[in-house]
Amino acid sequence: MIVLGIRESPENLALRVLVASATAKRDSTEHVIFTGGAGETGASEARAMRDLWPSASKANVTFHLEEDSQSTCQNSLYSIPILQRIAQQQKRSIDRVLVVTNDFHVPRTKLLFEQVFATEGVSHIFVDTLAAPTVADERASLFRNEFAWLEQSKLKLLLEQMTNRPFRLPSKQRIEQARSELRNLETTVL
Q1: Which alpha helices (DSSP H) does the chain contain, by range?
Q2: What does the pLDDT look like over 121-175, one tens digit per residue?
Q3: What is the C-alpha separation between 54 and 120, in angstroms, rounded?
Q4: Residues 36, 12 contacting (CB under 8 angstroms)
Q5: Neighbours of 36 (CB within 10 A)
Q6: Residues 106, 131 contacting (CB under 8 angstroms)
Q7: What pLDDT does residue 190 have?
Q8: Which of 80, 68, 73 is nearest to 36 (CA)?
Q9: H helices of 53-96, where?
Q10: Among 23, 71, 175, 176, which residue has the fewest nearby CB atoms (within 10 Å)?
Q11: Integer angstrom CA distances of residue 156 from 4, 7, 120, 150, 163
Q12: Averaged over 113-127, what is the pLDDT?
């Protein structure tokens, strides 16, 4: 399981951790990667999420902190070495990850993780997502922001400039699929 940080909203961060911990407990998840770097306060999102994780759900879970990322692209890119380390320690390949984020962020998260994993040669890892709810008074603005980012030129910016690497860009069809998923979520949630 990979839990994504969110700097702008401590409430949404807490909701991600709550949903992730309940799911991890139910599914007997062994490894959880918290990914998110430090903001202006100096504390990393990864460390904040680990600290928010309920004590009762900590048994039998190994936590991994990725504290350098500043974007969803970097969340995915910087999680790959951790996934590879886990696979090496377990002497088996990882074929699926569950990425936890808020509902408004799911389509873009899945799209970006797929693109980064494909570019980095780990496309055999299936990316599944788990949606935490979004704080009600932030939903409309967060959905609008996501639509703005789901455009070819903005995704190019995210994939290449945020990681300083050349990445394969998603097809226009895949972007439209993500936009359609976001529209469906918006009508369901709002």
Answers
A1: 10-27, 45-52, 72-90, 106-119, 139-149, 152-156, 172-189
A2: 999 999 999 999 999 999 999 999 999 999 999 998 888 887 777 888 899 999 9
A3: 33
A4: no
A5: 29
A6: yes
A7: 64
A8: 68
A9: 72-90
A10: 176
A11: 21, 22, 16, 10, 11
A12: 94
Whether residue 129 contacts residue 101, with contact meaning beta carbons closer than 8 Å, is answered with yes
CATH superfamily of 2-189: HUPs (3.40.50.620)
Alpha carbons 151 and 92: distance in angstroms, whole number? 37
How far apart, in whole angstroms, are the C-alpha atoms of residue 114 and residue 42?
30
The overall pTM is greater than 0.85: yes
Q: Any idea where the domains of the chain sit in the sequence?
A: 2-189
Percent above pLDDT 90 for the chain: 83
Lookup: tokens for 133: 């709810």
Closest CA to 5 of 54, 44, 41: 44
Q: What phi and psi values does residue 141 have, to the nearest 5 degrees?
A: -70, -35
Residue 142 exposed, middle or buried by CB count within 10 Å (0-12, 13-18, 19+): buried
Query: ∠ CA 36-100-2 to the nearest 5 degrees?
Result: 55
How large is the average pLDDT for residues 35-46? 88
Residue 146 and residue 108: Cα distance in Å, rounded? Answer: 7
Cα dihedral sign, 82-88-90-93: positive
pLDDT surpassing 80 at residue 116: yes
